[in-house]
Amino acid sequence: MVYYFYNGSLDSGLNFDALMGLFSEADMCQIEDLIEIVANKIVEMISNDNWHEILLMGWQSNNNNLKKAGLKFVHENWLNIKDTENMKFIIENLNVEWMEELMSVRFFGISNY
Description:
Elements: H1 2-7, H2 16-29, H3 32-44, H4 51-61, H5 64-81, H6 85-92, H7 96-108
Helix pairs in contact: 2-3, 3-5, 4-5, 4-6, 5-7
Organism: Rhizophagus irregularis
Protein name: BTB domain-containing protein
């Protein structure tokens, strides 16, 4: 976060875990510009290995950018991810509202988000 304050940009060498941590800190401190920049970088890194973390972070932080990217990934990759450990992780951490959202995207697509 200090790098951002001094340079007005992110260190280009940040990995996914560092970006997720930075997102949490920026969200906690309500630094909107940094939240947006970090969320965009995280979305660029979405993959089979981390989509569930991005979606859960989007839900927990109420960040539409992360949530939309995660839900879009679910919709586009459903057959490949439905029986994975990452999907089990998501299902174990869902509340009713998130479950409805997940199923809506699964069947009807992402256009509503």
